Amino acid sequence: MPKLSANFSDYEFACKGVNCCNHSTPVLPALVVSLQQLRDMIGKPIEITSGFRCVRHNKEIGGAVGSKHTTAEAADLAQIPGMTIDEMAEWAKKVPMFDRGGIILYPTWIHVDVRLSGKYYKDSR
After folding, report:
1. Is 87 exposed, middle or buried (0-12, 13-18, 19+ CB in 10 A)?
2. What tens digit of pLDDT does each residue of 29-59 get?
3. Which of 7, 19, 22, 27 is deepest in the core (most CB within 10 A)?
4. Do 113 and 96 meet the contact criterion of CB atoms below 8 Å apart?
């Protein structure tokens, strides 16, 4: 389990699909750096529920076509105990790559990505 940063290891980003890509773990360094910045600011553990998804797995779970997960630019984060989704979003906006990239809110998790195509913010609750 190679460490990618002080608090994140490669297995956290692995595709969770079955019979698809052998749990491959590509991840962009900018995503890891940004997640570590978020973790350092919040001062609490962050659980990555979905990192990289191969195209096959993304399709199987109903992920968006062209999802930033398939290009290793995104992570879904479980709601941090004692923190609302809105509070998590406010912290994520303080991370430059997330503020310039994508932040999507869901009832029990938040999606963050380091897209270079421009700012994207959506509340899907």
Report:
1. middle
2. 999 999 999 999 999 999 999 999 999 999 9
3. 27
4. no
pLDDT band of residue 1 (cuts 50, 70, 90) is low
Using the structure block, give the residue that is written with the tokens 């930033």.
68
Q: Which two tokens stand for residue 46?
A: 């962050």
Distance CA 61, CA 95 (A): 28
Q: How far apart are CA 75 and CA 32, in angstroms?
A: 10
pTM exceeds 0.90 for this model? yes
- Please report where in the chains the tokens 């998790």 appear, as a residue: 109
Measure the CA–CA gap between 21 and 54, rounded to whole angstroms.
Answer: 7
Q: Which residues contact 117 (CB under 8 A, 6 or more apart)?
A: none
